[in-house]
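REQUEST ID: PR-0412
SUBMITTED BY: lab tech R.K.
PRIORITY: routine
TASK: structure prediction, single protein chain
INPUT:
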Amino acid sequence: MRLTALILMVATLAACNNATDDKTATETKETAMNTLTEEEQKAGWKLLFDGKTLNGWKMYQNKNADCWGVQDGVIYCKGSETDKSDMRADLSTEQQFENFELSIEWKIAPQGNSGIMYHVSESQPAAYMTGPEYQLIDDDNFPEPLEDWQKTAADYAMYTTTSRPTKPIGEFNETRIVVNGAKREHWLNGVKVLEFEAWTDDWNKRKAEGKWKDTPSYGTEKKGYIVLQDHGSGVWFRNVKIKEL
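STATUS: complete
OUTPUT:
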């Protein structure tokens, strides 16, 4: 009986310790959201989102819009059945970037569509007319048929991915975009899913024959804003950080 009681006591203590460890890990993860580790700071990473406000961000071309906000440490764009008919606009950084590594976590509403653009100029009516776009979309449930160049992590309307290791709708995905001169990398949940080089013969051919054939401004900038797209869908972003190269 004493041995049995001792075994039960040890098991109970172990379970309590595991629960405490799990709780501590959860709290640490929550505390770490929208912050940088000491190692990241030493490596040159900077936060683009403070977790509380839209400081450092603006509406594209300073348009009037009420679709973006911050709640529970997350930037969100509220969905709208009326899409562009109300006060909507893309969300842009105030600072411009040239060569960088961008890390960002995101999730999208069912049937949703959005994107992350970079090297954006404000010279055109829409951000996508200048800046290449890392596509964000509900691949499986989008109400219209999708080409591969429209699916998650594609270089929208230009290059497709080798794979799409997305998480279920409602869960956050992690994206990394690396831009170093003409060389570009798209990462999704720790997997490099696309690598290409801008302004090559192949790139120019794709631009001339595809969606951008009548958009000469597309992809020509070598420095510009980072922009989160408002496509009328609910979309959420957190842990937005950048390291300039």
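NOTES: Residues 1-13, 23-31 have pLDDT under 50 and may be disordered.
REVIEWED BY: pending
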